[in-house]
Write a structure and sequence with these properties.
Helix Hairpins; five-stranded mixed beta sheet; Beta-Lactamase; about 475 residues; 4 domains; 12 helices
Length: about 475
């Protein structure tokens, strides 16, 4: 209870507990509005007093009162102004509104979250529409077609545009039976098996190709890919697939393979047929060289012999290339040999071919192994010729032979400019050369390819290490 100016005249114990004060601190000492926050005091001055003067009461006024410890206590206040013996008295009832205040705050927070969710959903819908538009554009440009599997019925559903792959002139609805019946009979079982493996979890990705027989009489090859999404129980939730027409790509690839096969066969045939006339030329040169000839004619005869021998080596390489590419690889005949003796003899022969260069031979370990001596001679000849071509002109070439455990190693080392790193990965591929096309040292680029194939024929391998400090070393390792 308070007077017209708000001075507290009477207060109960409950209210005192709420504000943390004793009756002695409040009655006759404090005005009610002094317990309000700053906002509450303003409200008391601008609304509380005028309303009491006009209508004599206030209902459900929510204000915060200051507790003695400084915290605020939300309360609902009801006020009735009465006159007692000529004195105006305000009777005030107060109820703590903490729970209601909490409810209202939670309600406001929930409303704010709801508004944010609405905005997020609206933005997601807009992003989804944009993504769908982009997807449609990408599918159109890439000539791709969508299909899916109904997780309930398990049936495949196709976009209306898939009808174009079946030879229809316009888009139309297709059933799963319509599509499956269009798959070529020879491919139908394999396609069904590929899809089954994905649906039962055996494989993660569905990826296969097959032929479609269109109603327009055209057979098309399509690539079909897709992925299933499953819940924790392993039940299919969604499956999305895409189709692409690869008919032209398959035709071009087959045509390119046919052309390559024909070219390689022609190389083999021509190379084989040239061996006989070249052998006759070399034999004729040899016979002519036995007679007494002037120096100039002897020199010309030497050039003819050198050119014919080079042509013969080229033909042998082309024949080996054809065998490696078209057949099951080069054949080798393993026989017991002394690897050190073989390499030493080859180095002596090669030294005669390169009289201006120093070739040394180093050996380690025992020497007896099983290998094809002729093929190893060919391999070593190609590696030494390569070292002479690309190595430093006045630096020696070192050939090493070693037998350690069950591994035979043959290495050829030369000094000079290192092999560029970007060429190392393709060095042993056919038609790869390390010199410009107009170089005097050029060749068809089969030497290192033949080296790799000879190593493979022996179930071995060839490696290269090249840097500016230690030079370049080719190492062939084969089982002994």
């Amino acid at each position: 209870m308070a007077d017209a100016q708000g001075l507290i005249l009477k207060v109960n114990t409950t209210f005192c507990l709420w504000v943390g004060r004793t009756p002695e601190e409040l009655v006759g000492r404090k005005k009610l509005q002094e317990l309000f926050t700053v906002g509450g005091r303003i409200f008391h001055h601008t609304h509380w007093l005028p309303m009491l003067q006009l209508q004599g009461s206030l209902a459900e006024v929510k204000l915060e009162l200051m507790h003695a410890d400084g915290r605020t206590v939300p309360m609902l206040l009801n006020v009735v102004r009465r006159a007692h013996g000529g004195t105006v008295i305000d009777e005030v009832s107060a109820v703590v509104a903490e729970d209601r205040n909490l409810y209202e705050r939670e309600l406001l927070a929930a409303r704010k979250r709801a508004d944010e969710l609405v905005q997020t959903e609206r933005k997601a819908q807009e992003d989804l529409k944009l993504a769908e538009a982009r997807l449609r554009q990408a599918l159109h440009v890439g000539k791709l077609f969508l299909w899916e599997i109904d997780p309930v019925s398990g049936a495949r559903r196709f976009g209306d545009d898939v009808a174009l792959l079946l030879g229809f002139g316009s888009e139309r609805a297709l059933s799963e039976a319509d599509y499956v019946n269009a798959i070529d009979a020879a491919d139908r079982a394999a396609e069904a098996e590929a899809l089954r493996r994905v649906l039962d979890g055996s494989e993660e990705i569905y990826d296969t190709s097959y032929r479609l027989n269109g109603i327009d009489g055209v057979q098309r090859t399509v690539k079909s890919a897709g992925q299933g999404f499953f819940d924790q129980a392993g039940k299919l939730v969604r499956f999305v697939g895409v189709l692409s027409d690869v008919t032209q790509l398959v035709r071009e690839r087959a045509s390119a393979e046919d052309r390559a096969l024909f070219a390689e066969q022609m190389v083999g045939i021509v190379s084989h047929d040239l061996r006989n006339p070249l052998s006759a030329i070399l034999m004729g040169v040899h016979l002519l060289g036995r007679g007494e000839l002037p120096a100039d004619k002897q020199r010309v005869l030497g050039h003819v012999a050198s050119s014919a021998e080079r042509a013969q080596r080229l033909i042998e390489e082309l024949l080996d290339f054809t065998l490696a590419r078209l057949g099951a690889g080069l054949t080798v005949v393993r026989k017991p040999i002394d690897i050190h003796k073989l390499v030493g003899n080859i180095v002596e022969e090669l030294a005669l071919s390169f009289p201006d260069r120093l070739i040394t031979h180093q050996q380690s370990g025992a020497g007896v192994c099983h290998a094809d001596a002729d093929r190893l001679a060919q391999l070593l000849g190609n590696l030494v010729a390569n070292a002479m071509t690309y190595g430093a002109p006045h630096a020696p070439v070192t050939v090493s032979s070693a037998l350690s455990g069950n591994v035979v190693s043959i290495s050829v080392h030369n000094q000079g400019a290192p092999i560029p790193p970007d060429k190392l990965h393709s060095l042993f591929e056919p038609m790869v050369r390390g010199v410009p096309g107009n170089s005097a040292a050029r060749n068809v680029g089969l030497g290192l390819f033949i080296v790799r194939e000879i190593a493979r024929a022996h179930q071995g391998k060839v490696q290269v290490v090249s840097d500016s400090e230690s030079g370049t070393t080719f190492t062939v390792q084969i089982p002994a």
